[in-house]
Amino acid sequence: MKTPGSQLHVDSEIGRLRTVLIHSPDNGIGRVAPSKAQDWLFEDILHLETVRKEYDYYVRVLLYFLDPEKLRDRLSAGDEPNDDRAFYKPGIRGFYDSDHVLEMEKLLADILGDESIREKLCAAVCAIEGCSYNQQLDLNALEPDRLARILISGSLKSGEMLFPPIPNLIFTRDLGIVINGYVLLNKPAKKARNREALLARYMFFNHPLFAAYRSKILEIPHSVQHFLRPGEAPDEKATLEGGDVMIVSPNHVIIGCSERTSASGVTEAMRLLFDNEVVEKVTVVKIPHKRDYMHIDTLFTQVNRHTWVVLHSICSGRNKIKGEPLEYLSDKKKQNDVQILQFKKNKEKPKKFKNIESLLASVSEKDLGSTEKTVFIYSGNDEFPHDEREQWTDSCNLLALKDGVVLGYDRNDRSVESFKANGFQVIPVEELSKQIEAGKTDFHSLENTLILMPSAELSRARGGFRCMSMPLLRDPI
Ligand SMILES: NC(=O)NCCC[C@H](N)C(=O)O
């Protein structure tokens, strides 16, 4: 029998969530220097304690939903002034330690208990971070919980920084993605995320929870063209990040070709998925390669079987004036066009889709058998500039706990109005917690609901709740 938490299977974006991998903001986030913020992929420096408070609400919602036992005797956990948030901190007595809400730092500490894995991982981290041999020996001698914390935060307890933090580890989505019973590991485009990928690789290959899946971990190979090229140009490098991968139905994966996921990365991922018979259909959505859009999940996510939240201008190309000379002459035209191609195993010619809405409608109606007309909820109520402002703060990046119940930021006011106009209940998490704790609401009876999460600080890290989650197990849709 499999222990709870050890089963990997995801075949949709909206099946009831059973197990998820997350990482709470660690001290590394509080050590991002202004001069490095952009290099480390933050637009600004963040206030650690505020981010943590906001994130703790997220952990509580996940526990209410996936592992309520953990909250049974601790309904006010985290609100006690003197416990220093122990409930939320891996490696500390009192940590929630759930089998359904898995914390990356805890899983890392687990594998570091094995001497041979500890040695290999310390050597690998020290190699990519340029540590001295003696630093490597010192790290190797630490006990697992402390070592895990240092490998993530980059800093010793004294505050000394050994290497940079990896503040984007909170976005566990980008580390890899479970597709049916397989794990497709990422290959990050940005140097700032390399150590995250290394830690994720060690975790999946070595943690006993995933032992049954070792032969089902898929790794994107280096493209030979890339390392044979002269110079350091990133062209042709095969990169892929989880925010660009959506398993929308048991046999259909959408992959974004974006600022982060290269054409070679898409090609290699598609080959792996077809060769291993993971899915029969892969749709590639090429989006403009720019920071605002980063991954496809910053532009659209699924809410229920027939509803999606999207940035409308990316579907309609509304802001372009057709026929202008610029459209023909500028190279940018090609770069900024959305192109959608659907590939099937052993079929030579891909099918083309006119726009993102027609693709998503075909997912809902054909793949998922929805009999209702597909509904699109637009970022910022489709009003310029609120559509783009709210997309920037992740109005389109929602996490579905189940079909129709999603988590999103509380700051995207016009998008929230669109949800209401489309018949959704909208409830702030503080209110929901009170109702649950007073026994007035049962989480599982919620339907078609957007849960609003505090976001003033968290949203400045540039990712929403889809980015902050790696679903490991969902019920079949
Ligand atoms: N899936 C996502 O869209 N992830 C968001 C990642 C944000 C992070 N600051 C980054 O730039 O990589």
Automatic annotation (TrEMBL):
One term of GO molecular function: arginine deiminase activity
Keyword Transport: no
Enzyme class: hydrolase
Pathway assigned in UniProt: Amino-acid degradation; L-arginine degradation via ADI pathway; carbamoyl phosphate from L-arginine: step 1/2
Catalytic reaction equation(s): L-arginine + H2O = L-citrulline + NH4(+)
Keywords: Hydrolase
Domain of life: Bacteria
The protein's Enzyme Commission number: 3.5.3.6
GO biological process, one term: L-arginine deiminase pathway
Record has Zinc as a keyword: no
Family of the protein in this entry: Belongs to the arginine deiminase family.
Protein name: arginine deiminase
Species per Swiss-Prot/TrEMBL record: Arcticibacter pallidicorallinus
